[in-house]
Amino acid sequence: MPLVAAVLTAITGTAHAQSSVTLYGLIDEGVLYNTNAKGGHQYAITNSTAQGDRWGLIGREDLGGGLQAIFRLENGFNIETGALEQGGAEFGRQAYVGFAGKFGQVTFGRHYDPIVDSVSGYILAGSTHQGGAGQVGGVFSSHPGDMDNLDNSYRVNNSIKYYSPVFDGFQSVALYSVGGVAGDYSRNQIWALSASYNSGSFSAGAAFEKINEPNFSLFGNNPSSSATGNNMAATPVYSGYASAKSQQIATAGASYAVGAFSIAAIYSNVRFSDLGSVGGGVLNPNNLSGTAVFNTGELNVGYRITSSWMVGLGYTYTQGTSFDSLPAAKYKQINIGTDYILSKRTDLFAMCSYQRASGYDSTLKPAVASIYTATPSASNTQLVATVGIRTKF
Questions:
Q1: What are the residue boundaries of the Porin domain, all occurrences included (predicted)?
Q2: Who has the most CB within 10 Å: 66, 179, 202, 261?
């Protein structure tokens, strides 16, 4: 035993009490029913519904004077097959190293963007730490295509991220990703800023993000991504806008909690600008030009029936842009979910989302219902329901 302890200490570098390396993870698995998966009913085993399956390592080392070296490596995986998620990246969820101290925290690597830190907690699919209904909606309650990244579908490579200290409930976050393209510093560049406030019962946050060549810099930053093709093809909601020179996301949210009840509201504006500027006809088969805009609003409520049992209900409305005098796409969605805590580590959940689409989508075809991550419908309506179990370690 002394030999084993010595070996583990040498490997983890935890000889000093002020240093630590922690292993953590989460497994989420369930059963899905889809009323219209390309025209047919679908029953399937599904994973990562409430939260994405993951395991990770997080570490800190005390350097003295209040300064710490920090790191995180976080892997995403499919529990059903054992395959890597995030396009085959070994640590596709997060991978960074940096410093933390009285000045805040600065890290370098692959990050969640500031939208996730300051606003995503208010959507029904989001986390519970900001007082909203939180995660009882699951991934299916995300905004169409998760175009505003409020459900944290897309990470940022080659980036520097800074968290300010918290001052009287206020905190700011900044991120900058260098494009890495020789001779053109702005190509594939991403930058984002956010701010948040939390007073306990009330919290609010806002964020802005600018993404150049989003088809490659954001949607195409995984090992399996194409260097020339359409990396936005997973959903017809915005697959026709892959030739955009830039994408802008402006979003804000707030929540208020009274006892067991909470209410949250979120707005996002997403703009795919200068269509036709990137990739030629391969990415722009309909020869679109100009700017495509999506405006999305969400209102959700949560109620904690007991300390172990929570329910949530939300409504989302999204409107797109009209092209070629065709009616603009609209997506209306109702989400409901419940979560029951069995223990500190394990809970059971049930979630249901219904979407109705109208108008014409980014491919200039009649819009079909396309609940995020589910197989798109063959018509303008779709209902997806799931029940499952989540355990953390």
A1: 5-358
A2: 179
